[in-house]
Amino acid sequence: MIVVRSEVTVGKTGKTTTESRFYLSSLLPDERTAENWHALIRGHWAGVEIRNHWRRDAVWGEDGSRTRRPTALANLALIRSALLVLLAEHHPAGSLPALTESFARQPAAALRLLRAR
To answer: Taking the complete model, does pTM exceed 0.70, yes or no?
Structure first.
């Protein structure tokens, strides 16, 4: 198990908090240096941001949703997740912006994709 501790100071209040995050790996902690573990963890989360959050926000505008109802937000997030899985299965080489535009022009193709399961 790898433990990463970070200290954050809020500029307005000057209050400092310490957080601990825990990571599991099949490697032993001493198989990498602290710098290697740090790079590996940061690289993982950067990939998550690019592969998932960017697509959801930049292409589908998830962060711009005006609703504040938790149930609606959770349902919309589930629908977007399901769509990402379907698109990856049926159009693995397609770019998300191009597919979104194509389905907007051809709604029948989007409906066929939903029925493909």
So the answer is: no
